[in-house]
């Protein structure tokens, strides 16, 4: 009996020493304490059996149990100090430092905003390739062979002899759409464009444009004015004056440039608008009959309008940004404002 109890005490000691090595936090330590030092622990049960022993056995087993208990208490206190020391060094309850997870670029946001406005008017979104052919970029848009836009100093040619180039506007998308679908059509085409422009405060060799097209029977210039007037009022979120001035584009006739009252000075005149009180913002017009003939539409049956606007210019006016280069220099302080 005595020998068996001594062996049991030694086994408990060995087990407790092994298990406490795996204790790494306060919760595990508390579980260890309850198991080996608690009121219903293995050790407590052995203490309760001493009354059944002789006086000599009580002395020996009592001494052995007290030594084991003292050892386990010592292990408990040492482990507790280690855990508290780690907890003091690394306070896992302290809030972490915030970090940037990124956000949509201002140009992407403006494009999305424009798309949503045209969605409400029933326009769908169409896309086309950024690497285009001379046919879609110029010829099908009624652009004469001698037009300066075709010059190598204005257009990025990939293979000049084969007429392969980086598109200079998103207008080729309207040719591709009309070549594939029959009227009625109502689409906008956002995307990147490329021109041989200097990279300065108001120009960039890479920029974004949104093309618009509407084709059906009996479409008039008044429809064009209504669509663009609604869009501009919605985009700038304020009452603005809008002027349509005669202009020229090879693919529209009649053509117009649209100007709005300066959103910086509210039409009073400032350096942004050249003290005129108005800002030119986009080009538009009725689709030229020659363009319809090229895509196989009968200009005697169908009419339509088209427009094109620069996304960067719209963003600069809306958010009072005075340099287009800010959009492309990856300045996180600037981009984080939007």
Describe this structure in words.
With 338 residues, the chain is an alpha+beta fold. The protein folds into 2 domains: 88 residues, no CATH class; 230 residues, BirA Bifunctional Protein, domain 2 (2-Layer Sandwich), CATH 3.30.930.10. It contains 11 helices and 10 strands. A 7-stranded mixed beta sheet has the order 1-5-6-10-9-8-7, with helices on both faces. Strands 2-4-3 form a 3-stranded antiparallel beta sheet. A hairpin with a 2-residue loop joins β7 and β8. α1 runs parallel beside α4.
Characteristics of this structure?
single chain; about 350 residues; alpha+beta; BirA Bifunctional Protein, domain 2; 7-stranded mixed sheet; 3-stranded antiparallel sheet; rod-shaped
Whole-number radius of gyration?
A: 40 Å
Structural class: alpha+beta
Number of domains: 2
- Mean of the pLDDT scores? 88
What is the level 1 CATH name of the largest domain?
Alpha Beta
- CATH architectural name of the largest domain: 2-Layer Sandwich
The low-confidence parts are: none
Could you give the order of the helices and strands? Answer: HHHHHEEHEEHEEHEEEHEHH
Largest sheet: 7 strands, mixed
For the terminal residues, how far apart are their CA atoms? 82 Å
CATH homologous superfamily placement of the largest domain: Bira Bifunctional Protein, Domain 2
Tell me what portion of residues adopts beta-strand conformation. 15-25%
Number of strands: 10
Approximately how much helix is present in the residues?
Answer: 40-55%
General shape: rod-shaped
User: DSSP helix count?
Assistant: 11
- Main β-sheet, spatial strand arrangement: 1-5-6-10-9-8-7
CATH topology of the largest domain: BirA Bifunctional Protein, domain 2
């Amino acid at each position: 009996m005595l020998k068996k109890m001594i062996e049991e005490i030694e086994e408990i000691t060995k087990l407790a020493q092994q298990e406490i090595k795996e204790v790494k936090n306060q919760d595990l330590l508390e579980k260890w304490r309850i198991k080996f030092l608690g009121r219903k622990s293995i050790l407590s049960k052995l203490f309760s059996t001493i009354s059944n022993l002789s006086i000599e056995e009580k002395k020996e087993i009592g001494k052995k149990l007290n030594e084991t208990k003292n050892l386990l208490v010592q292990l408990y206190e040492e482990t507790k100090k280690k855990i508290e020391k780690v907890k003091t060094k690394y306070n896992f309850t302290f809030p972490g430092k915030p970090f940037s997870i990124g956000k949509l670029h201002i140009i992407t946001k403006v494009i999305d905003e424009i798309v949503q406005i045209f969605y409400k008017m029933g326009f769908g979104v169409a896309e086309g390739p950024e690497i285009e052919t001379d046919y879609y970029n110029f010829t099908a848009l009624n652009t004469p062979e001698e037009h300066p836009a075709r010059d190598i100093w204005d257009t990025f040619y990939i293979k000049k002899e084969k007429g392969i180039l980086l598109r200079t506007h998103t207008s080729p998308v309207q040719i591709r759409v009309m070549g594939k679908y029959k009227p009625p059509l109502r689409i906008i085409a956002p995307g990147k464009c490329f021109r041989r422009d200097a990279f300065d405060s108001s120009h960039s060799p890479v920029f974004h444009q949104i093309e618009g097209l509407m084709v059906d029977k009996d479409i008039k210039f008044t429809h064009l004015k209504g669509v663009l007037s609604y869009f501009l009022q919605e985009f700038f979120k304020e009452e603005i004056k809008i002027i349509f001035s005669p202009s020229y584009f090879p693919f529209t006739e009649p053509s117009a440039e649209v100007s709005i009252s300066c959103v910086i000075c509210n039409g009073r005149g400032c350096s942004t608008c050249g003290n005129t009180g108005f800002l030119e913002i986009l080009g538009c017009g009725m689709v030229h009959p020659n363009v319809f003939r090229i895509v196989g539409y009968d200009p005697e049956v169908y009419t339509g309008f088209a427009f094109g606007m620069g996304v960067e210019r719209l963003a600069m006016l809306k958010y009072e940004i005075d340099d287009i280069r800010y959009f492309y220099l990856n300045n996180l302080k600037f981009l984080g404002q939007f």
